[in-house]
């Protein structure tokens, strides 16, 4: 089809085949007009040939600047002076990611253990919004930058996990079958011991799709003892596993108070809220109601407070407020006839962890002793154990878990449920830090103690979760 006035008359502007590249000397074209001069395609120095799949320059505009469209492989282009996103990248600054240097940064030497330098804000972590008490805090939330890959709720913030995601692995069928003709335990150990939780959990659905059988039922029928318990724990999502452990700690004749405190004092708000949701769905009862029916007194109040998943998670620390809280704790305990347990409960369960680390420091400066010692003087029984555990977990979480592991293995007999729970739940969070704290506190590597305290396939899989000797 033709139109009046087309094609253009001689001396006009016929479009060249394949578009027109800019001439040397940039855009708009210099005197001499179109078509391009001899040797014009590809353009000479200074030109900008179009890349396959790229956008043509908008009419009247300039060619796209380096770093613009088309997007570079792997996500956003690096900003000037910045770093490119790493594999599995972190959310971009301004969307809950790490602060840029000079914008709060990490605490400098001389600050509180695990806390900020006085007067300096703490960094925001993946999945966190700006420090605003009305917004949900970090700890497994979906990163606010929709382009960043979703992160597991239990992924270490500083990549201190002993168990890494297997490269190139997708949600594929497990490379092992379980049948009455025999099970290849070594294949199970190699498979589970080299896959992250995010890669393991989908195996259950993939197995049923491929073989028409239930993987968990097959594993239960073919495996036994602690090896079975460890394998089944590794096939559950972190929050499902926590919910099942809380259920086991509460039901029956006795209560495992240490397990309740361990889980509720070390998980983030988002994780605790997910545990509550799963507990109600799986067991038909609210976790809070289960705790109330199985505990009593101030220890019950401590657990109920922790189970709300409503701790302040702002990362900034107000030193003047920390001093006030330290004075309140002193007035409620050491400086009082009797003890105001409610004051301890209110501060230890509601304040942010960075703030509490500052409070503990101020408390020691003020009365010359660590707050754990004051708690032991003022309280007793499960309440004392619970309060001390909360303080230790907040002060130094890896050291707290190192102590829990040591207690699980020392002496006659092994507390295998505790050993399994910590090794599975912390392997993708801070196991390398736990190993360092274990070696520092007990003079032996965690790997060595696990190897000496367990045996068989159970030991083989546990040391895979440990990740090596120190």
UniProtKB/TrEMBL annotation:
UniProt-recorded Gene Ontology molecular function terms: calcium ion binding; calcium-dependent phospholipid binding; phosphatidylserine binding
Any GO CC annotation of this UniProt entry: nucleus
Low complexity bias (residue ranges): 1-13, 28-40, 62-76, 84-93
Residue spans of biased composition, Pro residues class: 115-126
Source organism, top-level taxon: Eukaryota
Biased composition (Gly residues): 94-114
Free-text comment about domains: A pair of annexin repeats may form one binding site for calcium and phospholipid.
Name of this chain's protein: Annexin
């Amino acid at each position: 089809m033709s139109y009046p006035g087309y094609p253009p008359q001689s001396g006009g502007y016929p479009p060249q085949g394949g578009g027109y590249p800019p001439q040397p000397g940039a855009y708009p074209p210099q005197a001499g007009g179109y078509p391009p001069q001899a040797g014009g395609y590809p353009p000479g120095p200074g030109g900008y040939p179009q890349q396959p799949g790229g956008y043509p320059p908008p009419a009247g505009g300039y060619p796209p600047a380096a770093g613009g469209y088309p997007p570079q492989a792997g996500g956003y282009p690096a900003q000037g002076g910045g770093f490119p996103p790493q594999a599995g990248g972190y959310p971009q600054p301004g969307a809950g990611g790490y602060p840029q240097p000079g914008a709060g940064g990490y605490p400098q030497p001389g600050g509180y253990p695990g806390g900020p330098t006085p007067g300096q804000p703490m960094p925001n972590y993946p999945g966190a919004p700006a420090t605003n008490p009305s917004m949900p805090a970090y700890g497994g939330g979906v990163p606010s930058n929709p382009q960043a890959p979703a992160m597991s709720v239990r992924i270490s913030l500083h990549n201190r996990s002993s168990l890494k995601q297997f490269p190139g692995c997708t949600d594929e069928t497990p490379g092992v079958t379980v049948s009455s003709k025999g099970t290849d335990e070594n294949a199970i150990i190699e498979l589970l011991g080299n896959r992250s939780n995010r890669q393991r959990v989908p195996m259950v659905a993939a197995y049923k799709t491929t073989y028409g059988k239930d993987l968990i039922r097959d594993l239960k029928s073919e495996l036994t003892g602690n090896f079975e318990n460890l394998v089944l724990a590794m096939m559950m999502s972190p929050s499902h596993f926590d919910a099942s452990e809380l259920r086991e700690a509460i039901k029956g004749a006795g209560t495992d108070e240490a397990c309740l405190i361990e889980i509720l004092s070390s998980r983030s708000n988002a994780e605790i809220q997910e545990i509550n949701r799963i507990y109600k769905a799986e067991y038909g009862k609210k976790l809070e109601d289960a705790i109330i029916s199985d505990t009593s007194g101030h220890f019950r109040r401590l657990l109920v407070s922790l189970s709300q998943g409503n701790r302040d998670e702002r990362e900034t620390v107000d030193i003047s407020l920390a001093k006030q809280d330290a004075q309140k704790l002193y007035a409620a305990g050491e400086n009082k006839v009797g003890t105001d347990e409610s004051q301890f409960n209110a501060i230890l369960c509601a304040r942010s962890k960075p703030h509490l680390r500052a409070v503990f420091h101020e408390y020691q400066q003020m009365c010359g002793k660590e707050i754990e010692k004051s708690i032991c003087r003022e309280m007793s029984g499960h309440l004392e154990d619970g309060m001390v555990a909360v303080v230790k977990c907040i002060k130094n979480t890896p050291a707290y878990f190192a102590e829990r592991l040591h207690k699980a293995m020392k002496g006659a007999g092994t507390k295998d449920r505790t050993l399994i729970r910590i090794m599975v739940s912390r392997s993708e969070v801070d196991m390398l830090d736990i190993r360092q704290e274990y070696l520092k506190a007990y003079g032996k590597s965690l790997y060595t103690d696990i190897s000496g305290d367990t045996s068989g396939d159970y030991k083989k899989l546990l040391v895979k979760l440990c990740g090596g000797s120190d």
